[in-house]
Amino acid sequence: MGQPTLRKEVVSQTLQPFESLIRVVKTPKDEILIDSTKTIKGRGVYLAPSLEAIRQARKKRLLDKGLKIRIPNHIYDQLEIEVKEHW
To answer: N- or C-end of the chain: fewer Cβ atoms within 10 A?
Structure first.
């Protein structure tokens, strides 16, 4: 078995295993989606599955910076629901 695939988490800026992070993606059509399958094509940023990480990302607008587009508040709300229900 090889090394796990690592991605940089946007809040802590640390490398973490790909499977343990939530991916938010901006598609080529500028749609913002939560990519639970981690297969949607587009620019992605990775976020730790914790409410605190989501709050920090919202406060500092880290997803906006990473995806180079304004992230609507409902995406952050969806992320909080995703964490509460699935992580």
So the answer is: N
